[in-house]
Design brief:
Glutaredoxin, single chain, alpha+beta, 6 helices, seven-stranded mixed beta sheet, two-stranded antiparallel sheet, about 30% strand
Length: about 170
C-alpha cells in the first residue's frame, strides 16, 4: 500500500471537460498524474463510486464546501478519484456543482487504485473492484499525509481532516 513519502503512481486518469479551452476538447481528456501533480499541492480524495450514498451526501459536498479554505491553506487543486468513467464523473460533477472547486477524475479501470494498493473488492455486490475511501495530501507528486478509512466508515478522509493537515 502507498504510504507517506511515496510518489504517486504514474498512471493516466480521465477528466470530462464541459467546455473547450486550454487546448482541451469537450469530453474525456487524459490527465497524466505525474505531470498534473508536479509542483503543486493537491488535496486528493478517493471513494468507492459516483452517485453512491455517503460519497454524494457527505464526501464530495464537504470538499466543495471547504474548497476556498483549502486553497487559502496552500492547496492548489482538489482531486476526487473514483473507479468510474469520465462521462459518469462529468455527470456527477454537474450534480454536485464541483466546477471550479473539485476536479472529478475517472479511474475507469482502477489503475490508480490498484497501483496504490487501495482497492476495495465489491464484486459480491455487483460493483467490481473499486477504490477504498481515503484522502491524501500530495506535495509535488509525493504523499505528505494519508488518511485511509476503515471499511464502511467515514471518519478520517473528510475535508476537515485534510484542511487541518494542509494548515499543519
Amino acid at each position: 500500500m502507498i504510504k507517506v513519502g511515496d510518489k504517486l503512481p504514474s498512471v493516466t486518469l480521465q477528466e470530462f471537460s464541459e467546455v473547450e479551452g486550454n487546448g482541451c476538447s469537450i469530453g474525456p481528456n487524459p490527465v497524466d498524474v505525474a505531470k498534473a501533480s508536479a509542483g503543486k499541492t493537491i488535496a486528493l480524495f478517493a471513494l468507492p463510486g459516483a452517485f453512491t450514498p455517503t460519497c454524494s451526501a457527505k464526501h464530495v459536498p464537504g470538499f466543495v464546501e471547504k474548497a476556498s479554505d483549502l486553497k487559502a491553506a496552500g492547496v492548489d487543486e482538489i482531486w476526487c478519484l473514483s473507479v468510474n468513467d469520465a462521462f459518469v464523473m462529468g455527470a456527477w460533477a454537474r450534480d454536485q456543482k464541483t466546477a471550479g472547486k473539485v476536479r472529478m477524475l475517472g479511474d475507469g479501470s482502477a489503475d490508480f487504485a490498484k497501483a496504490t494498493g487501495l482497492t476495495l473488492d465489491l464484486t459480491a455486490k455487483g460493483m467490481g473492484v473499486r477504490s477504498t475511501r481515503y484522502s491524501m495530501l500530495v506535495k509535488d507528486g509525493v504523499v505528505a499525509a494519508l488518511n485511509v478509512e476503515a471499511p464502511g466508515k467515514f471518519e478520517v478522509s473528510n475535508a476537515e481532516t485534510m484542511l487541518a493537515q494542509a494548515k499543519g
